Fold this protein.
Amino acid sequence: NAGVTQTPKFQVLKTGQSMTLQCAQDMNHEYMSWYRQDPGMGLRLIHYSVGAGITDQGEVPNGYNVSRSTTEDFPLRLLSAAPSQTSVYFCASSRTGWVKETQYFGPGTRLLVL
Amino acid sequence: GENVEQHPSTLSVQEGDSAVIKCTYSDSASNYFPWYKQELGKRPQLIIDIRSNVGEKKDQRIAVTLNKTAKHFSLHITETQPEDSAVYFCAASIQGIKAAGNKLTFGGGTRVLVKP
């Protein structure tokens, strides 16, 4: 199993550009989520999904959209990038979303918005 | 919503000494408390976790304690080694409600440096 994979590893955007961060898992996990990590602030939840077709907002959802059309994929879309979205983005998944389950993190995408 | 505070932000210890990181949380409904280790440029990885019906859990040199009354939990690393150098994050979550998902609220992290 590849586990949780993310692409791209690094991206530079100009303010106002749009892009999609890809996340995929091959473990048949129901639960997937996106976090952003800023220096000194830990990880903050952006959006999450408890199964295909079901998504919900986390702590910092503004400026981001998600969809979950399949169990495997959970893309994160930035419609109009802003410098405040410069961060490292981690996707995570777990077998289910409602009992104690280890969350597995992807390798991260480092995003720089100029 | 939940708020998790973590102290200290940096911790320097001599190899072989113990390291203690403390976290407090605000939501009394939180019942699952994992700890993650993140090495430089790598992804966070779970090292130990504890549920609210347990006061202490050990795994070799790592232990976690939980005080639900005071709403704080701590990570203890004994006999530290240079490979323990990393950033450690505590987190809190409410488990058992599917609609709530496995939402983790993280502390700000502790950078641990183990000096040889």
User: Anything to note?
Assistant: Chain A has a mean pLDDT of 92. The first strand of chain A starts at residue 4 and ends at 7. Chain A touches chain B at residues 31, 33, 35, 40-45, 48-50, 56, 58-59, 90, 94, 96-103, 105-108 (CB under 8 Å). Chain A is about 0% helix and 50% strand.
